[in-house]
Structure formats: structure tokens, C-alpha cells
Amino acid sequence: MLFRMPVPTLPSIDGVALDDLGVRLHDGVGTLRVWSKNASSIELVLFDAHDLDWETAQVPLQRQPGGVWETTTELLQPGVRYALRVDGPHGPGHTFNPETLLLDPYARGLAQGDGYEEWRSVVIVDGFDWGGVQKPRVPLDETVIYEGHIKGLTKRHPDVPAALHGTYAGLAHPAMIEYLQELGITSVELLPVHAFVPEPRLLERGLTNYWGYNTLNFFTPHTAYATEAARKGGPEAVLAEFKGMVKLLHEAGIEIFLDVVYNHTSEEGLGGPRSSLRGIDNASYYRQQPDGAYIDTTGVGNTVNTATDAASRLILDSLRYWANEMQIDGFRFDLAAALGRNAAHEFDPQHPLLLAIRDDPALQDVKIIAEPWDVGMGGWQTGHFPAGWSEWNDRYRDRARNFWLSDIDYARRASAPVGIGGFANRLAGSANTYSEERGPLASINFVTAHDGFTLHDLVSYDVKHNEANGEQNRDGADMNRSFNHGVEGETEVPTILAARRKAMRNLMGTLLLSAGIPMITAGDEFGRTQRGNNNAYCQDSALTWLNWEHEPWQQDLLAHVTLLTRLRAENPALRPSRYARLGEHVPEASDMDWFDQNGETMEVEQWNDPRNRTLQYVASSAPHDGASNRILLIVHGTESPIDVRLPEDIEGVTSFTSLWSSADDVPAPDGKQYPPGAVLPISGTTMQLFRVE
């Protein structure tokens, strides 16, 4: 369950609620409402349906209380193409130009002309037969996220028809749905699908913005991800294809999350494209110094000013639209710290927008996930978002990588630098990062994401190889906590390949056996590579599209991940909703006991001793709706083999049943039983999971 607080008053201007902005059709006419505090005039411009340069009419808007401008006209009908002309004062912070044609920020559809900036808004009639299909509403503790790119997922899939490759409809094809179900995925998180444009600097280099973090409009699905038939049918057909995708995935019990970019827009810095907010009211929508210079906490030139009511309401209204009209199940907020900055541009965990997103009645069944940082001063805020939010846990990512990769690299040259205590904390739900009120489900656990090395490359490269991006390998992270295991890049050396593949199994095992919500990056389950590129945002090619033809070792890794997701689903002890408290029974928590390699309770000094990188972790749960469940997980974090004695002093235990081992190239059939006190030989760098009987 998501934690909810009392509903606050939603943002308004001068006491006037900003309701019904954009176009609303009624009684055979259309009413357009646009907000601009500083404009002196706004004009609606209408265009021919086939020639977006041919103006067919102009209609002035009248200023209403609270900075809202409005007109009602029979010229606004379904399918009509339109734009705005806005004039206003000159001076610091203002960039009005009445010659510029601007997009309605609330436009539900877009049409593109011949040029880079030749976009028009389109009047849309929302209407779709959902056939009674409801959102799956997967419990938070059962959620397994699969982060992927709508195009990259199916562009090369041999069982998806060519006409559907790389499209919304392609993701909803039975071949993809069956794959996701077999893999144990509950929730697909899509990289940005709000309408976006590539940056001019990329186009000049013959590249494009593949990931999509350059939003043009917050209400419209990206047209290029629709099938050719839908694109030819116009914005209404694109919208229908998107909704059809959601409906089919929901029928299969799979949720859809969107990675949403509300922290900045494609208008870039001053002097960049003027397509919407900059021309409507630059001083109100973007963070600025008194002289009009932008305050950029996003690294792309501008930052949306959520300290203003209008910007906050724009974001809330967009979320409501996607959650209700489009039936989206959750949102991952890119650079979410930028959304929580106040009028002094400082992060405030009680920012009205952060609380409103959590508490809005129209968003009560929606999962909300923060990327809890931006690039501004004080921008790293992991663990500091309000209750009810989950967060990408970069501390988890770093500790998992260190334990299985950089620590092992260091140990080969000296000795292991740290013990197992920090790793155990992440395994158990990161209680040192999230409050007791928020619990382990505040943590979105991940080892990789779209941004950075893939899992295969994490164990195969010591440094990034981003030359293809055209920035002399300066872009992308330099600190990757990766380990190539002896050779940079591809190799045929059997011992190195074996070590890399075990490292991948250990990292995936850690991810899927930890308390918290796991996120798998698409393709990691079968070891895809980007050939060492850790910032492939501008690569729309086979480098970033998933390759669905797999070598035997990739099939084996996929079998491991599929088994791990099943074991996670079958063992509630692995997915507590609350933190345990010593000596107390806490509902929805897993009681945890920790033992050393000899089966003895871990002593305080053992946790951080670099010579001790082996532990046995017993988690016990008694859920409300099922029988009690206990698991034992052995973690051994050095390359030397070791003997481990299973604990003997656990009350009521008769045996330990083997479920999974990262030492196996191919998952072994489960069911082998061991009595308490049995001594097991454990190979170097291995995890092994047991059910406690």
C-alpha cells in the first residue's frame, strides 16, 4: 500500500483555480484557455489541415482574472490545427515575440510541418473503448520493474511483425507480452514517450536524441513511436494506438510506468528554440536570476520553475491526464529534485508540488518514483523525499557494484578494502537511508539503468568507450565501479568469461533477492552489450536496440533471472513492506538473523572487518494472507573458496532446501536438502539461496 496524507489545496493563482486550460469542446464550439501572467495580448491562429503554413483565421483571446486568457469559437473543432501568438513587455526575464507561433502547453495532439520548429497544436476528442479493462494495481511489494525503450524493445524482435517494430503496438504484441510474463515482470517502465525533439546540436552531428529527455509537450504521446498506419491516420490514431497498448498490457496483468521529464523542456537555454512556455511567459515558467539569466539545475539549459503555481499546476494536470485518460499506472520523475526546489531554488522535501503529486485524489492509485537528484547546488537528495514516494537508490547501486566488482578488482592487487556490513544493509532494505515510516519499499533497487553501462559491459570494461557520440569521449560518467576481470572488452579467454558471467549472476541475484523494489534494465537479463558506451542517449541503432538472438550463455543467464523473479514472488520473506524492530513483531516486516561462515551469530566487529566477506542471512515473515515463510541466503564475497556451516540454532528448523546458486552456469533443479549444521563447500564470489523448512 502507498502511504497517503490529507489532501492539500492544489496550486491556484490569486485564488482562482487554473481549471480547464487548453481546449474544451462543448455545445458545438470550443473554448481555449491559456495562462500568462505577463502577456499583453494572445491570439489564436488556425491553419489549413493539409498546409500548416496557411493561416485560415485569427481570433483574439480576452484576459480573465488570475492571468487566464480565454476565447470561445466555433472554429475550434476536432482535428483543427492551431497555434498561439503572444505579445508582452520587453526587459529582463521576458522573451515575448508576436511573430512566433507557439504550441498550447495543454495540447492533446501535435502535427509537424516541414521544419524543425514547425509544430502545430491539434484539437483532440478523447474517446476510447477500454472494454472494462482495469489497471492491474500490483501491490508495491510484489512489483518488479523492467526499464526499457519503446523502440529498442521490439525493433529487432523476430516474432513481432515488421510493421510493428519499435512501436507502441509492438510492445503489446503477444510475443512481447508472453516474454514479459515468463520473465516475471509486473511493471514496464518506458523511457520518455511525451512528445520530444532532438537537440539541434545533435542533428548537426548526424545524431539524434534517442532516449527522449527533451520534452516538447507534456500531454501528447511521441508520434514517431506509432506505426506508420497510425501516423498516417493523424494524432487521433496515434492516441488510439497508445491506449490500445495500455489496454492489452493491462489485460495481461502488466502495469505501465512512464519516465516523465517535467524538470526542463526542449526550449534549452536563452537563444534556443522558442516553441511554447518561453514565448507564453518566460519569466513565470523558468527559473531565472533577476537579470533574466537562467538558473540551470538540470544541465540542459533551463529548469521549469515549480515555485510558481502555474508551472506546478501544468505538471499536475499532465499527470492527471496520463493517469486517468491514458490509464498509466506509475511515473518515474526525471531529476525530481528540480521539482522540489522552492522560490529560493533550494530543495524542500515538503514542497507543495511533491505533496500534491502524492495526495491528489486523481492520482491515488498511481505509483510515484523519484530520481532523487539534479545537477544544481544541494541536488543530491537520496532518502529525503516525502513518505509515499519511492526513490531510485543510487547508494544501493554503488554498494552492489563495489562488493561484486571494484572490491574484487582491488583484492586481486592487495586485499578486500571493506567488509560485508554495508552490503548487508542494502540487502536488507537500506534502513540507513530511508525512515522507518517509509520502509524498504521506498527503495527502488537497481544495478544498472538506461544511463550507464549495461550489466554485460559493467563486468567487461574498466572505462567508458563513448567515441561514437562525437564528444571525444568526454560525455558519460567516469566513475562506473566496473571491473573488466583482466581484459578490456570482448575476449575469448574461458576463465575471464566464466568470472564475468558469474559476476552478472551475482549482481542479478543481489538485485532480485534484496528487500525493496527491483528494477531490471531491459536486456540485462540476457547480457546485452553497448560495446562499452555508457551514455548511448544519441545512438538510435543496433547498438541500443535489443538483440533477441541469443548465444547459449545468454539463454542460461535468462534462465537464472527468470528463476530469481519466480523465487522472489514465491517467498514473501524476500519482500518486506516494513523494517523489522529488534524484539518486536512488526506486521509486513521480515525478521532478520545474521550468521557468519561458521553458523554463529555475527559479532559486531565482524561486520566491517575486510577479512570477513561471508555471511548467512535468514529472513522470516508471516504475511496476513498466507503461511509463514523463511529463507536463508549465503553471500561469499571473495574469490577464494570457503566452507560454510549452516546455522544450527534456529528454532524449529529441520532442513534447508536449495533453491538457487550463482555458482551454477545453468540453474540446477531445486530440492536438495541439508540438515542444520551441514558444512557446504562454497566457491569464490557466490550467492546461494535456501528455503528454511
UniProtKB/TrEMBL annotation:
Does the UniProt entry include the keyword Hydrolase?
Answer: yes
The keyword Hydrolase belongs to this UniProt entry's keyword annotation: yes
Domain Glycosyl hydrolase family 13 catalytic spans what residues? Answer: 122-568
- What is one GO biological process annotated to this record? glycogen catabolic process
Q: Which GO terms describe its molecular function?
A: amylo-alpha-1,6-glucosidase activity
Pfam families associated with the record:
Alpha-amylase, CBM_48
What is the top-level taxon of the source organism? Bacteria
Q: Which UniProt keywords apply?
A: Glycosidase, Hydrolase
Give the EC number(s) listed in the UniProt record: 3.2.1.-
Q: Which NCBIfam families match?
A: glgX_debranch
Q: Which family does it belong to?
A: Belongs to the glycosyl hydrolase 13 family.
This chain's protein is named: Glycogen debranching enzyme
Native organism: Microbacterium esteraromaticum
